[in-house]
Batch of 2 targets.
Target 1
Amino acid sequence: MNLFRRKKIADLHSEILTDHGLKRALGPVNLTALGIGAIIGAGIFVLTGQAAAKYAGPAIVYSFILAGIACALAGLCYAEFSAMIPVSGSAYTYGYATLGELIAWIIGWDLILEYLFAASTVAVGWSGYVVSFLKDLGIVIPPEFTSAPYNHVTPEGAGWNIWRLFTEGWVSTGAVLNVPAMVIVGFVTLLLVIGITESATFNNVIVAIKLTVILAFVGIGLAYINRENWDPFVPPALGAGQFGWEGVLRAAGVIFFAYIGFDAVSTAAQEARNAQRDMPIGILGSLAVCTVLYIAVSLVLTGVVNYKELNVPDPIAVAINALGDGLKWLRPIVKIGAIAGLSSVILVMMLGQPRIFYAMSKDGLLPPVFSQVHQRFRTPWAATVLTGSVAMAVAGLFPIGLLGELVSIGTLLAFAIVCAGVFVLRFTDPQIHRPFRTPAFWLVSPLGVLFCLWLMYGLPPDTWARLLVWMALGLVIYFFYGRRHSKVQRQAAENSNGPAR
C-alpha cells in the first residue's frame, strides 16, 4: 500500500471522455458569475465590519490587500490546474495527481470545512439581514428563532489545551435555533438538486442585483466619508491580534474566507462547455473584480462609520443609517442586495461540496452513494441532500464567528497545497499539455505557499486546535474505509499481480 500513489493525468483525461453523468452547460460568463456569486457575500456584507471592529480598524483595507495577494498567487495556480485537469474535485483532484492519495484525502476532507461550513456561515449572515429587513416591514421574528443557541468565547489561558477549547467557553444565548438560516439552506439544496442550468441562471440574476447595490453604496458613500474615522488608520495594538499590524494580519486570515469563491469555480469544471479555455477566465476574472470591490467597500464603510460601531451582523445597514435621513430609501435596497448576495454565496458553496464528494466517491475513497447522479436532473443528488442536511444543522446551531475562522484556516491549507502541487508537477510531469501556464511558477508557487501559511499563522490557537481535531477524524475515516476501497490502490495491486489490501 503506497499512501502517496498518484492518480495519472492520462487516467483523469480518460475520465473526462467517458464520464457523461454531469451536464456540460456552463460558459465563461456563467463561470465568472459563479466566482463573483461566491466571493461577494459575507465578506462584504458581514465580515468586513466585524473584522474592522475586532482586529484591524480602517486598516482592514490592508488586510484585504494581503488576502488578495495570497489569492492572486493561489488563483494563478488554480487556473493552470483547472485547464490541465478539467474534472470535478478541485484541489482534491489536483492533489491526487501531484502529491498522492493521502495528501488528496487530506485536501478533500479539508475542503469540507471550506464549502460545507462556508455555506452554514453565510446562512447565518443571511439570517441577520433577513430578520432586519422583515423588522423594517413590521414583521418581527422572535429572537429565540433567529440566532444560535450557543456562543463560544475562548477560555482564558486555554492555549493549545484542546479539551478546554472544546468543552469550555460555551455560553447559552437563550435561543432555540436559527430558523431563517436553516430555511435558506433547505431552499438552495432543493434548487441544486433540480439542475445546474437552473442554478446558474438563478445565480446570474442575483449577481447582477448585488453588484448594482454595491456600486450604488460605494458611489453614494464616497460623498459622505469623514476622514476623522480613518485617524488613526492603523489603531494602536491592544493585545495579541487586536489592532496594530498584528491585528491587520489576524484580520487578513479571518476575512480570507471572503475570497474562496474562485476555488468553487474549479469544482464545476466537469460541467463547463470548454473547460480548458473558460476555467482560467472564470477563476482569474472573478478574483480581479471582487478584490477591487472589497477594497472600495472597506474604505467607504470605515470612512462613513467609526470602525468601533461595526461589530454587528449587518454593518452595511449601519453605514446607511449613518448617511442621514435623506438616504433612508437606500437602506431597504442595500438589505435586498445583501440578502440576494448572500443567497448566491450559499448556492455556490453548496454546489461545490457535493462535487468534491462526487470525485472522492468515484475514486473509491467514499461510499458509492456520494457519486449517484439523478437520472432526470443529472446532478449528484444524494451528496447534495447530505450536504444540505448537515449545513442546515450547523447553520441553526453555531455562531458566525466560530464558523468563519474554521472556514478560513481550511481554505488556506487547501490553497497552500495547490500552490505546492503546481511546483511539483512542473518537475515530475513537464511534458503534460498546459493550456494555461502559471507565469514565473518558480516564484509564484512558493510565494503562494508562504503567503497562505503566513495568514494561517495569524489565526488564533483555538482555530488551529479545531483544525487538527478535524484532520485527525478525517484520517481515521481514510484508514478504516478510504484506503481499503481506493480504486487507484486496487488497480496498482492488480497490475503487480498482488492482492488488493
Target 2
Amino acid sequence: MLPQDGRRRSEVSMRILIAPDKFKGSLNGPEVAAAIALGLTAHDSGHETIQLPVADGGEGTAQALQSAMDGRWITTPVRGPLGQPVNADWCLGTDSSGRTVAALDMSSASGIALLDPAERDPWRASTWGTGELIAAAMAHQPDRIVVGVGGSATCDGGSGMATALGFHFLDSAGTELEVPAGLDQLSRIVAPDQDWPDLLVACDVNNPLLGDLGAIRVYGPQKGVAPDQLEHFESRLEQLARCVERDLRRDCADLPGAGAAGGLGYGLAAFCGARLESGFKLVAEAVDLAAAISRADLVIAAEGRLDRQSLMGKAPGGVANLARQAGVPAVAFCGSVVAEDLEALRAHFDLIVPLVDEITTLEEALAEPARLLEQKAATITQRLVALARG
C-alpha cells in the first residue's frame, strides 16, 4: 500500500505506527496520536505516521470500534450514576464480517468521571444508565453489542443495569427493592421474558467478582468504599451471586473479568448471558492491529500512567507484545512512569518516554499534555530513527 501522498516505500524515511490509549482525564486516544504525529514530522516530513488509537475495554473502547467500523454516533439521554440526567454517546456500525455492531462504554452513562470526588457514593451509584444504553442499542436490533466496562463509579454488580432491562429484585416478602441500596434484603430475582442479543463485554481487568482480588477489595476504595465498609459491600455481592445462581441458574462469579466495573462484568454475564473477553484483544482484532504493526518500522504505544499493570491486559502491553511477535521495535510514551516498575517495563519496550521528568512536573504535564507530547516526539525523532534501523 502506498502512503497517502503517493510516494513509494523507499522514499519514506520511516513508517511509524502510533497506537496509543487515552491519557485518562486529559486526552483521548486520537488526540494523543495526533500530538505525537505532529512532533515526529516537525523536522522531517518524510516520515510516514499511521495513527491507529486503541483501547482495552476502558474509556475510549467505543471510540476505537467506531473508527474501525466508520460507525455513526448516537446520543441517548440516560440516568447518570446518581440518577442525574446524562447524554451518553454510543455508536452503530458494520464490522469487517458484515455484522451490525453497537458499541458503548459504560463510563459514558455510569462512569466515575461523571462525578466530582466529593460526590462519589458507592451506596447509591448505579449502572441503571448503562442498562438504558443497552436497551437503546437493542432497539436497533444489531447482530452484536459490545460494552466497554472500564471507569465505573459503581459497585452494584450490574443490578442497576439489570433493573433497567426489566429484572425484578425482591425481598423475602416479595416487595420490589431499590438497587443497589436494597441488595442487603435481596431474597429473589425475577427475570423478564427476553431474548438477549450476542453481547460481548470488553474487559480491561481479569478480576473475579469476589474475594481478595475481587471487585470490592481491589477497586472499591477508589469508588468511595471506606476500609471498614469493604466486608459489607462484599457480602452484598455474595448475596447477589447466591440469588443469581439459584434463580437464574448461572454461576459467573469466578469468570475472569467478572469483577470489572464494580461487578458489571459479572452482571452482564449473569443477567444477559454476555461473554467476557479481553478488551484489548477485541479492539486489536477490530482495527487489524497485528497487520498494521507488521508493515511498520517502529510502533509507539501510549498511556497516561505507565506501570506494571500496563503489561497485564492493558493496551500498552498488548501493543508491545504484538510488536515483539512481528520483530518491530516498540516505544512507550506516557504522562508518568512508576520508577519501581521500570525494569519490568523495559523488558517490553525499547524506549520509554515520560512527560514528567527532572524538568516537567506532574502538574505541568496534566495542564499541557498535547503540547508536551508533540515536543517530546520532536526532540527524540532521530533517536527513534536509529532505533528503527537497528
